[in-house]
């Protein structure tokens, strides 16, 4: 077996002295700026790992890397979820062995679409996923209008060392509305906890507006993104409104903050329309304004999942004040089309929080994984040109921002001939973004020098 591309992976066969909750035999070390394959396809027509999800747990400096284990690369051949735990030590990550998550299973179902989120008050990790009746395809559900998926989660109080029993939320969250949901899924990729404490799990459903009862056939189902959320630390859950009218599928969200301090939830969603859809919410994800296509973020044919994270840029204050102590902000038009929902933001200057986005850059096929930067998420058309993190076939990805260290992680599908050959991990710094990124937004006052440099 030969690792893909340039590697900095060292195999360790001794027991490493770690805190008790983290103590285990570590197998591999990822150094900053190098790719490490965490999940490797066993043969072209056999065991394959797909659908990465990445979560960072700050108190224990732990990275949780999730994926689906499949008997083939096909969706209907998913088996169960697997996990590798990594301990961040400075600018490197020590990875433990692959472990199957047998707690995340329902009898007669396959487990798909890992979507983890960390709740900072309790320290609990929630891992959401769907369980789908064995061998029932998404297409069969859409055509028949008969959902075969269940909404489930397990949780961990010790950063992924052990997990609770499965909890099925299907009736609680969807209930009688199921007659309008031909099928649904969460994520894939991470969820978020907002400043308010709300936990948000991105999702989508193929929605049936009405049925032809005489024929017992559904009207054509159309996919729409939406959020599933909890305001009581994960005790109870409900769903928000569909993002309409545009067709949107797999999505991720990130909370961004303007200089006036108002939080806004940004949504990036997959579409079949050759461009990414973007939408904003001012009510914590309950509903979103009308989505718009981003001309800077292209989709390959049929689209592809992508990841987005927000972070506080180092080296600039979290609030911008004038000498009198008041917020130095003005009113400007944002992505929100309703003038009554204009957001306070300093015109032409960066937001307090910025966005990173990962996605294949080609409009023709899934190749060349790009990392894009947006310093002004509440303005339109301000994405940078991509920094190519991986050259060649690639697919789904998930990003994580690691505390205030200026570090980021990316877990992504890649290969030499096909994107499903492996799932690799890359740790990179803000300085790498600085050195590789080329600006593609001409808004005055935008300058990457706001990144902290050593």
UniProtKB/TrEMBL annotation:
BP term (GO), one: ganglioside catabolic process
GO cellular component: early endosome membrane; lysosomal membrane; plasma membrane; recycling endosome membrane
Domain of life the protein comes from: Eukaryota
Cited PANTHER family: SIALIDASE, SIALIDASE-3
Organism: Prolemur simus
Keyword Nucleotide-binding: no
GO molecular function: exo-alpha-sialidase activity
Keywords: Carbohydrate metabolism, Glycosidase, Hydrolase, Lipid degradation, Lipid metabolism, Repeat, Signal
Annotated EC: 3.2.1.18
Record's signal peptide: 1-23
Catalytic reactions on record: Hydrolysis of alpha-(2->3)-, alpha-(2->6)-, alpha-(2->8)- glycosidic linkages of terminal sialic acid residues in oligosaccharides, glycoproteins, glycolipids, colominic acid and synthetic substrates
Name the record gives this protein: exo-alpha-sialidase
UniProt similarity note: Belongs to the glycosyl hydrolase 33 family.
InterPro entries: Sialidase (IPR011040), Sialidase_fam (IPR026856), Sialidase_sf (IPR036278)
Positions of the Sialidase domain: 62-404
């Amino acid at each position: 077996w030969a690792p893909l591309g340039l590697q900095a992976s060292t195999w360790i066969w001794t027991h490493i002295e770690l805190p008790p909750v983290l103590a285990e035999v570590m197998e591999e070390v990822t150094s900053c700026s190098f790719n490490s394959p965490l999940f490797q396809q066993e043969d072209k027509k056999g065991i394959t790992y797909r659908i990465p999800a990445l979560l960072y747990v700050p108190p224990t400096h732990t990275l949780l890397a999730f994926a689906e284990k499949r008997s083939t690369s096909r969706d209907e051949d998913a088996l169960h979820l697997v996990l590798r735990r990594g301990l961040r030590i400075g600018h490197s990550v020590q990875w433990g062995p692959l472990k199957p998550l047998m707690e995340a299973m329902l009898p007669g179902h396959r487990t798909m679409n890992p979507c983890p989120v960390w709740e900072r008050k309790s320290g609990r990790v929630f891992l959401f996923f769907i369980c789908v009746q064995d061998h029932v395809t998404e297409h069969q559900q859409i055509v028949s209008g008969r959902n075969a998926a269940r909404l489930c989660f397990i949780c961990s109080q010790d950063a992924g060392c052990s997990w609770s029993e499965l909890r099925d939320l299907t009736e609680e969250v969807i209930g009688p509305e199921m007659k309008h949901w031909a099928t649904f899924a969460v994520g894939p990729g991470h969820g978020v906890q907002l400043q308010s404490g709300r936990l948000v799990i991105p999702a989508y459903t193929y929605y049936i507006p009405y049925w032809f009862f005489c024929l017992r056939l559904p009207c054509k189902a159309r996919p729409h993104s939406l959020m599933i959320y909890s305001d009581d630390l994960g005790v109870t859950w409900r769903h928000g409104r569909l993002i309409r009218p545009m067709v949107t599928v797999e999505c991720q969200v990130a909370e961004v903050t303007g200089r006036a301090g108002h939080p806004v939830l940004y949504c990036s969603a997959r579409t079949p329309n050759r461009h990414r859809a973007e939408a904003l919410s001012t009510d914590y994800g309950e509903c979103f304004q009308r989505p718009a296509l981003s001309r800077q973020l292209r989709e390959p044919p049929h689209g592809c999942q992508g990841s987005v994270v927000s972070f506080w840029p180092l080296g600039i204050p979290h609030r911008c004040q004038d000498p009198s102590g008041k917020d130095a902000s003005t009113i400007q038009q944002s992505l929100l089309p309703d003038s009554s929902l204009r957001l306070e933001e300093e015109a032409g200057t960066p937001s307090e929080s910025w966005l990173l986005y990962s996605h294949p850059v080609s409009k023709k096929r899934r190749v060349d994984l790009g990392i894009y930067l947006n310093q002004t998420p509440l303005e339109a058309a301000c994405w940078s040109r991509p920094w190519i993190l991986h050259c060649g076939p690639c697919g789904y990805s998930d990003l994580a921002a690691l505390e205030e260290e200026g570090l980021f992680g990316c877990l992504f599908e890649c290969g030499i001939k096909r994107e499903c050959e492996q799932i690799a991990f890359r740790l990179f710094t803000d300085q790498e973004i600085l050195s590789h990124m080329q600006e593609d937004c001409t808004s005055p006052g935008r300058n990457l020098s706001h990144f902290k440099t050593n």
